[in-house]
């Protein structure tokens, strides 16, 4: 019994820890990418370079992995799925996302990213990856938890409230606020592009989950997704970016952002997300987006000496409650499925017509 409990704990703990690390890396990617774009790096060139470098990093791992194990052959239909994953998840999604961040800010991207659980939940129900039976407590918990997490994220975004922790520097906050407003950018267009990418990211999660079920070779999926996405994004950038000097990256923040994003994004993030999608499903992965707001707030307090305000505390508590509700619903759903399987196995093993007894 102890071994079973330990196995269940590790099954729940490692995906949770991995997704927390993914969100931390993603916030780092977005922040460094914004800094590089402010320094003059083209947002499209940035996406091309970091995915291309990430693909090169992944290549030796893929060769080593395929040599050591008997891989299933890559059919034309599977290759087509890789092409679509690259188009949806890298070429279109990342190009639009970093264009939206260029026009707005990483904070707005983190805030609008909280729409993902709702979009993913709806798509997962449509494609029958999540069960919705409103009479069951598990479905009620998942539905309510998703809505509650989105409400909590909205509170963190829209309500600041009085300062709870940290240094009160109104002059700095006001100057940064006016600096944000004075940027030559289109805030509305940036928000619209980021919202579209949230829908596309939810669709990518659904397609990636279905792909890894049909072709359970995680490393191969990740490599070809990055490979096709890099080529597609390069073609798109060549068509849009007419200035040859835009492809020149000076040593400094631009180079740092590209290498960091290649390692944390292409190599680490895609592998971990694919692994979690396979084991926990698209809704579980999407539910970490609201937690990204909490992570961003904590990192800001620790590393940037930001102030903690009441709105962030209230929002974080509500997000945590919604997140726990979804996890509880998922756990209850899995437990019910295991109980049904145990009952069926028990009936089969004791039945007079069971092949086990015949042996």
Descriptive overview:
The chain is mainly alpha-helical. Helices cover 81% and strands 1% of the residues. It contains 14 helices and two strands. A two-stranded antiparallel ribbon has the order 1-2. The two termini are 29 Å apart.
What topology does this entry show?
Blueprint (H helix, E strand, L loop, with lengths): L1 H37 L4 H26 L7 H28 L2 H7 L3 H11 L10 H22 L4 E3 L4 H13 L4 H28 L3 H23 L12 H28 L1 H5 L1 H16 L4 E2 H41 L4 H4 L1
Antiparallel strand pairs: 1-2
Unreliable runs, pLDDT <50, ≥5 residues? 169-185, 353-359
Average pLDDT rating: 76
N- to C-terminal distance:
29 Å
> How many beta-strand runs?
2
Strand order of the largest sheet: 1-2
- Shape by Cα distribution: globular
**Residue fraction in strands:** under 5%
Oligomer: single chain
Alpha carbon gyration radius: 22 Å
Counting DSSP H or I runs of 4 or more residues, the number of helices is 14
Return the structural class.
mainly alpha
Helix coverage percent: over 70%
Largest sheet: 2 strands, antiparallel
Order of helices and strands: HHHHHHEHHHHHHEHH
């Amino acid at each position: 019994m102890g071994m079973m409990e330990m196995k269940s704990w590790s099954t729940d703990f490692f995906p949770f820890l991995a997704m927390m690390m993914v969100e931390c890396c993603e916030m780092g990617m977005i922040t460094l990418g914004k800094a590089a774009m402010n320094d003059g790096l083209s947002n499209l060139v940035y996406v091309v370079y970091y995915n291309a470098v990430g693909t090169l990093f992944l290549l030796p791992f893929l060769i080593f992995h395929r040599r050591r194990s008997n891989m299933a052959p890559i059919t034309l239909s599977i290759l087509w799925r890789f092409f679509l994953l690259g188009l949806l998840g890298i070429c279109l999604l990342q190009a639009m996302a970093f264009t939206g961040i260029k026009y707005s800010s990483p904070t707005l991207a983190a805030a609008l990213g909280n729409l993902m659980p709702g979009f993913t939940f709806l798509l997962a129900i449509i494609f029958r990856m999540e069960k919705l039976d409103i009479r069951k407590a598990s479905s009620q918990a998942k539905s309510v938890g998703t809505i509650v997490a989105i409400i909590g994220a909205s509170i963190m975004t829209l309500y600041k409230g009085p300062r709870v922790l940290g240094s009160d520097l109104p002059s700095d906050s006001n100057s940064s606020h006016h600096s944000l407003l004075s940027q030559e950018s289109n805030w509305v267009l940036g928000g619209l592009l980021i919202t579209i990418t949230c829908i596309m990211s939810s669709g990518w999660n659904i397609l990636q989950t279905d792909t890894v079920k049909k072709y359970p070779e995680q490393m191969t999926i990740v490599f070809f997704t990055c490979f096709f996405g890099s080529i597609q994004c390069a073609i798109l950038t060549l068509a849009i970016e007419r200035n040859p000097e835009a492809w020149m990256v000076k040593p400094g923040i631009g180079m740092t952002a590209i290498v960091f994003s290649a390692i944390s994004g292409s190599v680490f993030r895609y592998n971990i997300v694919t692994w979690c999608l396979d084991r926990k499903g698209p809704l579980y992965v999407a539910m970490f987006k609201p937690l990204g707001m909490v992570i961003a707030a904590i990192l800001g307090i620790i590393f940037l000496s930001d102030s903690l305000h009441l709105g962030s505390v209230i929002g974080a508590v509500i997000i945590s409650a919604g997140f726990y509700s979804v996890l509880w619903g998922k756990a209850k759903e899995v437990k019910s499925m295991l109980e049904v399987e145990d009952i069926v196995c028990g009936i089969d093993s004791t039945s007079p017509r069971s092949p086990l007894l015949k042996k």
